[in-house]
Amino acid sequence: MPVVKVTRHYQVTLPRALRKKLGIVEGDSVEMKEEDGHIILQKVKIIPDDQAYFWTPEWQAGEAEADRDLAEGNFIGPFDKAKDCIKALKEFKE
After folding, report:
1. 25-52: per-residue pLDDT in tens?
2. Which of 1, 35, 69, 94 has a Cα-to-Cα distance from 63 of 20 to 30 A?
3. CATH architecture group of domain 8-44
4. For position 2, what pLDDT does the model report?
5. Cβ contact 16:22 at 8 Å
């Protein structure tokens, strides 16, 4: 296990091998916690508030359904003109 030095302003450098193994790149966020006298760092993803809906279970279920429909060919279109799309939607609805 690599040993790192605490530098000015109490900073430490994550060893290259660990960064590569965990996929940590510049700009990523990590969570730091203490557990039984040990410092634990864990990579975290920060989701902006205006995008949080996308990661809800309900939205992800809809995304999975859409992916299945696309894979199975259960869709109409594409359309070159809006009027063709509207016509197809009306026919589909009826």
Report:
1. 999 999 999 999 999 999 998 999 999 9
2. 94
3. Ribbon (2.10)
4. 86
5. no
